[in-house]
Each structure stands twice: as C-alpha cells, then as structure tokens.
Amino acid sequence: TVTATSYTGSGANLTGVGGSTSVGAVGTYVLAWTYLHANRAIGTTIAGSQLRAGGLAWQTSAGRAILYGDMGVNTNMGSGTYRFMSSNGNMSGSSFYTGGLWVRIS
C-alpha cells in the first residue's frame, strides 16, 4: 500500500485504480451522436461541443435499434475531445447522423 498526496507522470502504469464515473471526465465513455452529416471512421475525433448524449430504443415498425437524443444545444458534451469507438457503416445524406460509443481523450 502506498499513500501519496501527489505523483509525477501520467499515471498510466498504476494498477488497481478505477476510472472516473463523472460525466464528461477524461477516460469516460458516452453513447452519443453528432448533428454533423458525415461518416465517421472508427478512431476519428470530434469536439465535445459537437456531440449529443443519446440512448438506444427499439423501433418496432422498422424492426431495428435506433440511437436517439435531443437536438437542443444544451445537451452537448461540452469541452474536450472525443474519439469514435464505433462504426456507422456507410451512411450518408441529410437524414443520417453519426452515432455510437465515444471516449473522452482530452
């Protein structure tokens, strides 16, 4: 057991330390979508201000899962940079938005 009030370095080699559960903290994941009409490749990054938190629902009329969320500007993920950890296939056009799992990296 080590007790410290500070440390030097990134802390990348620490073990037994849990990640943050604070919304929007670096290293946390969010299911979200962006209002920008563009395909996103896995690993690409985007500003948090361009992301909207979302949720999953089953659309029974179409027999598919959908990612939904609020279009309001107050629902964005704020500052920071997020990396896309999903794939949206090859969807394009004005009726599609990129959504999936994102991780905050800075």
Q: What does this molecule look like?
A:
This protein has strands spanning about 30-35, 45, 50-60, 65-70, 80-85, 100-105. With about 110 residues, the protein is mainly beta. Strands 2-5-6-1-3-4 form a six-stranded antiparallel beta sheet, with no helix packed on it. Strand 3 (about 50-60) and strand 4 form a beta hairpin.
Summarize this, please?
The protein is mostly beta strands and 106 residues long.
Features:
106 residues; mainly beta; 32% strand
Draw up the topology in text.
Layout: E1 29-34, E2 45-47, E3 51-59, E4 64-69, E5 81-84, E6 99-104
Antiparallel strand pairs: 1-3, 1-6, 2-5, 3-4, 5-6
| Rg of Cα set | 17 Å
Discrete helix count: 0
The tally of strands reads 6
Sheet with the most strands: spatial strand order? 2-5-6-1-3-4
Main sheet specs: 6 strands, antiparallel
Run of helices and strands: EEEEEE
Kindly state the percentage of residues in helix: under 10%
- Structural class given helices, strands, pairing? mainly beta
Distance between the termini: 29 Å
Task: Categorize the overall geometry.
Answer: elongated
Mean pLDDT: 77
Beta-strand fraction estimate: 25-35%
Note poorly predicted spans: none
